[in-house]
Amino acid sequence: MELQALPSRIGQVRRIVSAHLRYWHLDPLIDRAALGVTELLTNVHQHAQPDKLCTVELELLLDRLTVSVRDHDPRLPVVEDLGEIAPLATGGRGLAMVAAVSESWGARPDGEQGKVVWFTLPISAPSVSVPARVPALVTAEKAARRFAGSALNGTRSAVRSAVAG
């Protein structure tokens, strides 16, 4: 979804991400994903130049969720040394929090005029009982791919209409 990283929109995106993860039955990831996307969008709001336009993407793979935010500022973010931040400071801890709640995170240039900042969250696969007539090679991998593909395709229009509305 594409948006202006304004405080009112950040809350809306957090709710959309939460709803999307509920739809995918990934409720245990909601709090960490919402915190991470909030921090990344807040960084765009506070630091991105020349504008606050950005894109949020969710990518569901077999064993992980990747949340990324793309903006038009080529400057890569810098993680503050927590020891140098004043105890009562209201900023400077966002990327450290993203690092703390995620499996991994990073930033990379996106052409000459932007960057992508991302983080991943592991998905613990629920145990699935497999009928005896289904070959073992078909069940786990293909079922997960089908689920991810159909869930993504089925919710793109819902996310578009939620952002537009």
Structure description:
- With 165 residues, the protein is α+β, with helices and mostly antiparallel strands.
- Helix content is 44%, strand content 20%.
- It has helices at residues 7-23, 30-47, 94-101, 136-164, and strands at residues 2-4, 53-60, 64-71, 104-109, 115-122.
- The protein has a five-stranded antiparallel sheet with strand order 1-2-3-5-4.
- Helix 1 (7-23) runs antiparallel to helix 2 and helix 1 packs antiparallel against helix 4 (136-164).
- The two termini are 13 Å apart.
- Residues 127-165 have low confidence and may be disordered.
The residue-averaged pLDDT reads 76
Largest sheet: 5 strands, antiparallel
Q: State the secondary-structure class.
A: alpha+beta
**Bulk shape:** globular
Radius of gyration: 18 Å
* First-to-last CA distance: 13 Å
- Count of helix runs: 4
Strands in their spatial order, largest beta sheet:
1-2-3-5-4
Work out the strand percent: 15-25%
Strand/helix succession: EHHEEHEEH
Low-confidence stretches: 127-165
Give helix % range: 40-55%
Number of strands: 5
